[in-house]
From TrEMBL:
NCBIfam families: PolPhglucPhase (NF045942)
Domain of life: Bacteria
PANTHER family: POLYPHOSPHATE GLUCOKINASE, ROK (REPRESSOR, ORF, KINASE) FAMILY
Organism the protein comes from: Deinococcus phoenicis
Protein name: ROK domain-containing protein
Record-linked InterPro entries: ATPase_NBD (IPR043129), ROK (IPR000600)
Pfam families found in the cross-reference section: ROK
Amino acid sequence: MSVILGIDIGGSGIKGAPVDTETGKLVAERYRIPTPEGARPDAVKDVVGELVRHFGHQGPVGVTFPGIVQHGKTLSAANVDQDWIGLDADALFTEATGRDVTLINDADAAGLAEAKFGAGAGVAGVVLTLTFGTGIGSALIHDGVLVPNTELGHLWLKGDREAETWASDRARERDDLNWKQWAKRASTYLQHLELLFSPDLFIIGGGVSKKADKWQPHLKPERTPLVPAALQNEAGIVGAAMMAGQRAQGQDH
Ligand code: BGC
């Protein structure tokens, strides 16, 4: 059994748990610390350090981030403090924890976990996971292999609106939409994605995944099967641990 600590940085909470990366199961209860106001790098770094100490964890750590992550650097910050842009967050967290940290985009982590252990387990071909929350995150996976940082929440629809500002869960709350009205917007978005990617499966994750009974009957891609995420708020933690595990294995060879 290979156990790796996964940490998921979200807008309201930073959550961690040790994960058995062979089964995708948490091996201890999740521990959650509220996200510090403004989610500035130094404050978030301290929370990540506290989580690692809480579990007394040895070995590599996987950490999610709600923005572009390339070669350990955070390159966008749509819903967090702008100081993250261009920051070597991998080095920041490595220093704070004294562990080998692997950073991954939050939706990429959720998509990896769903594809291996959740709603996409055993599905061949192109699996597109979308997380609807404060923003819209995306994870494009082909036969289990992730194409990182697709950022499809920032796709422009009909020329003048960004998908996540119009169809995220936050947009639903802001515009006081009922689930059917929200699903109509989300369907327009999914139909556009179908045209671009022809997925074999859509997985709908993020905050809305807990309410699938409300939107599922109204969410209508034209030709692609669609399922709610299965791992819900554990997906980020599990995917972060999987990514750190993959990197540690790669380094062993
Ligand atoms: C960010 C993505 C992130 C998504 C969900 C978007 O605004 O650009 O990187 O995955 O929100 O948190």
